[in-house]
Amino acid sequence: MTSPSSARPRQVTFGGTQAIVGGALSTVLLIATAQQLYEQPMTEALEQALADPRAAGLDITVETARTIAKYTIMVMGVLSVASLVLGVFVLRRHRPARVALTILGVLVALATLLAGPPGWAVSVYVAASVVMLWSKPARAWFSDSEPSAFTSPPASFPPPPPPR
Question: The whole model's pTM is what?
Answer without folding.
Answer: 0.75
